[in-house]
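Hi F.,

I've been meaning to write this up properly since the lab meeting, where we talked about keeping a consistent format for the predictions we share between groups. The idea is simple: the sequence comes first, exactly as it goes in, then the structure tokens exactly as they come out, then a line or two of notes. No screenshots and no reformatting. I'm using this chain as the first example so we have something concrete to point to.
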Amino acid sequence: MRRASVTTSLKSALLDYQYENGRRYQGYGKEKYFLPADETEADRLDLVSHMLNLCTGGKLHFAPIGDNPQRILDLGTGTGIWAIDMGDQYPSADVLGNDLADNQPRNVPPNVRFEIDDIEQEWIYSEGFDYIHMRMMGGALKDWPKLLRQAFKFTKPGGWVEFMDFTMTFNKASPSGHFERGCPVDKWTVELKDLMHGIGLDPEPGPKLLGWFKDTGFTNINQKTFHIPVGTWPKDKTMKEIGTINAIQFMENLEGFTLRPLTMKGWKREEIMVFIADVRKDFKNSKLQMQHDGYAVWAQKPLD
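Output, unedited:
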């Protein structure tokens, strides 16, 4: 359990929301996260969760955590869907999800609970976890090696840690695709990545996960990479569904992705909206045939 005084003080600070451009943002540390923390963003996270289930073939995890894990920690839990599903799948486990935003449901399985927390601060837990999980935190963290060190510290000997993350950069998926560097959607990712690098955030941690796990001292390190299409262009039924969901979650939330970062870079709202209109056209254009990459890495803490 965490100390009540620490949690209460932090919760008070985190719930001091800011409102910009008609969206609600986390008040704690303005540069902590560039995405909103409101119902629209919660809907997007639920959509992405479904997409990731398709990407993994319905697997909630790749790490071999056994049939009866006791303590599971979900970092940056978002709307809590993964934590809730894990609670249902593993009734033996006490599942704890934490996040900066208070976006989780109240009606959850009895073995699932949530807390508001900043995982980049020092962790305070009285006992370790059998399994620590995190996904989709690109652009949210400043010190990934420190996070891995804390995860290592609070994993029980023989326990597992699994992170999944992505690249923001889109690439042409096939020779027949029309995607080109410098097109509006490519410029969009360049602008967002530039802003995040400028304030010390890592927008594309996926390709670096394997190295960070090795440097931290984990063993039995595994990596799975996969391509994530954007749009309806794939012929395979499942990949088409993944690509369609991916395009929708980008298109319907372009303002949420873009307004705060480009405003911070000095863009005027009118300029941003014109730019977003061009980016949306690219997302709708199935002839671009673009994709980005995902990385899942899971590893074990040594027994000794």
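Notes:
Confidence is low (pLDDT under 50) at residues 1-10.
The domain at 4-300 is CATH 3.40.50.150 (Rossmann fold).

If this format works for you, I'll send the rest the same way.

G.
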